[in-house]
Design brief:
Alpha-Beta Plaits; single chain; 182 residues; globular; four-stranded antiparallel sheet; 2 domains; alpha+beta
Length: 182
């Protein structure tokens, strides 16, 4: 069995309210085991015998759209992948000392060199960026809503769907002491 972490776009934002207990039931109805949710923003861990991330993402997106009646893009990472993301140090220690938060945007596919260059042009005195694999890391020195960057900027500019989570959330999800917050 492979342990997966699902990051769902559009859960409990924009009027799309979903109880985590209902989300857990949807995942369990698909035969997944060890299903847990973490905070009410569409973070789910589960185990599956499937080794095809793309098939699982498609299945989840189809089922969630049918059951919830709105599009929910799903970004899956295996346990080793998420552990690597949680350990990754995308910014210098000096930058981290001035940060209010560090976030990660999950994408389906890695960015090409031109897209990476575009992301790097978004840097400002309050925002720094780094790209690794299928993730865009965003360091913020101000409140996020005061930044000129957002998930919609990323999606509109790169013409790709994404979802953003705080690195603290990612690290807590991979830690052994997390509890089910359904």
């Amino acid at each position: 069995m492979t342990k997966y972490f699902a990051f769902l776009r559009a859960i409990n934002v924009g009027g799309h309210t979903v109880k985590m207990s209902a989300l857990k039931q949807i995942f369990e109805s698909l035969g997944f085991t060890n299903v847990e949710t973490y905070i009410a923003s569409g973070n789910v861990t589960f185990a599956s015998s499937s080794s095809s991330t793309k098939k699982l993402e498609k299945t989840l997106e189809d089922v969630l759209k049918r059951v919830l009646r709105f599009e929910t893009i799903t970004f899956l990472r295996t346990e080793p992948e998420l552990e690597q993301i949680a350990r990754f140090q995308p910014f210098a220690e000096s930058s981290l000392k001035t940060a209010i938060s560090v976030n990660v945007a999950f994408l389906k596919e890695p960015l090409n060199p031109a897209e990476i260059q575009t992301v790097m042009t978004w840097g400002t005195p309050t925002d720094e960026f780094n790209v690794a694999g299928r993730e865009v890391f965003w360091l913020v020195r101000t409140l996020q809503h005061e930044s000129s960057f957002s998930n919609s900027v990323l999606e509109k500019t790169l013409k790709r769907k994404s979802t953003i989570r705080g690195m603290d959330t990612v690290r807590k999800m991979v830690s052994q002491d997390r509890t089910d917050h359904a």
